[in-house]
Amino acid sequence: MSTNIGTSEDYTARQRYSIMISAMLGYILDFYDVLIFPFLLPAIQRSMALSLAEIGSLQALTLFGSAIGGALFGVIGDRLGRKTSLQLTIALFSVAAIISAFAWNYWSLAVLRLITGIGLGGEYGVGMVLFNEAWKKGSRGLGAAALQGCAVIASSTASIVGIWLIATFSDEWSWRIGLLTGGVPILLIIFIRFFMPESKIWLEYEAQRKAGQVTAEARTLPLADLFRNGLARQTVIAFVWLMSYMLCYYSVVSFIPTLLLRDMHTPGDIVRTTAVLLSVVSGICYLANGFFNDRAGRRFGALVPALFWVGSLVGMAMWGSQLYAGSKTEWPMFWLYIGFGIGNVALGVTGVWISELYPVNLRATAVSTFYMGGRGLGSIAPVIVPLAAANFGGSLLNGMVAVALPAAAIFILASLLLPETLGRDLSAKGFEGGTETDATMKAASVTSI
């Protein structure tokens, strides 16, 4: 295989930052749509007179659609280019989000949320791969953490907008306006079309493939290729790793608004203030974790936050049922909620770690499929948490912990089993037939962008 494949050095600073801005905005708007939906569910339930099971299925369908979209747009990203795939996925979820605001019954909303999820599924993986291929490897972990940390912007915005809509408008109008805001990303396509470059690694790889200089790729079934050439073990572990993260995350995030507002009767302004503060703390932790991720390794970036998960979930089981009594600092759930949010920053290492595990011809497929496949399986959280709660006398909090805590333990185990990839070269010369060469094991010196 020829080794003359582009690297991050081939980009100007302007090109790299345009890629980062596109990826950040896409991810913020993607995650915003996912996170505002739980705040809108009570209004949807009352407006359409739906059962709790039907409400849970709407969230589940969105996440399930993400799994389909992850595989679909990941393959498109590897076959037709990162930029093309990114534009298509944003167009699909933006249009579907806008139309879903005009749903007239449960089934129309369910179908539209499924389509929205399919569109959402491709944005993260393709954007993350393009970013990692353009960014310098010595600061790739910090950059990816900053990109992933945009989740806190999406989270705080979703909580502020969601609570404001519910307090300001009727049930019928609040959720429709909320879903309509999910169509904003369609404007991002213009920026991507004119300002964001295609991955140079992918472009040069494609040129060499068409010229017959690349022999490692049969271009048969992309998903099957993830299990070939010695990749099967890490593929299984990586998928379980992301699946367990998503299951833990959505078991708590999907129900925390309902738990605090409905079951614990917490004032809306306290929930909003806590969510905003959590976003600030999480943003700082994302950057700190990314900094150490570039020095201590990818495994470090996953394990340390996961320990916060375990501690907060155990604390929720013991003290989380105490109601707010006028002081946030004396309210156990305030600290436990923030502790869980710190654990969420483990997500910051996922995109860069998986990008470094796979060669250029499978990279977008791997990142998109694993991330969104994990999110898709995480879609069972809105279904199994209520079932678990029923076994604990109807306690939603105990149901959340019963599902999330084992998932956190599996995430920790999988993090210990994945190979360390710090300093790996993402160009084709770092891989030969899908397996790493000696060159990929050399540690990179830490450089600035």
TrEMBL record:
Pfam families reported for this sequence: Sugar_tr
Ranges annotated as spanning the membrane: 21-44, 56-76, 88-107, 113-131, 143-167, 173-195, 236-258, 270-288, 300-322, 334-358, 370-390, 396-418
GO cellular component, one term: plasma membrane
Keywords recorded for this protein, A-Z: Membrane, Transmembrane, Transmembrane helix
Alphabetized InterPro entries for the sequence: MFS_dom (IPR020846), MFS_sugar_transport-like (IPR005828), MFS_trans_sf (IPR036259), Sugar_transporter_CS (IPR005829)
Topology versus the membrane: Multi-pass membrane protein
Location within or outside the cell: Membrane
Chief location of this protein within or outside the cell: membrane
Segments forming domain Major facilitator superfamily (MFS) profile: 19-422
One annotated GO molecular function: carboxylic acid transmembrane transporter activity
Name of the featured protein: MFS transporter
Native source organism of the sequence: Bradyrhizobium nanningense
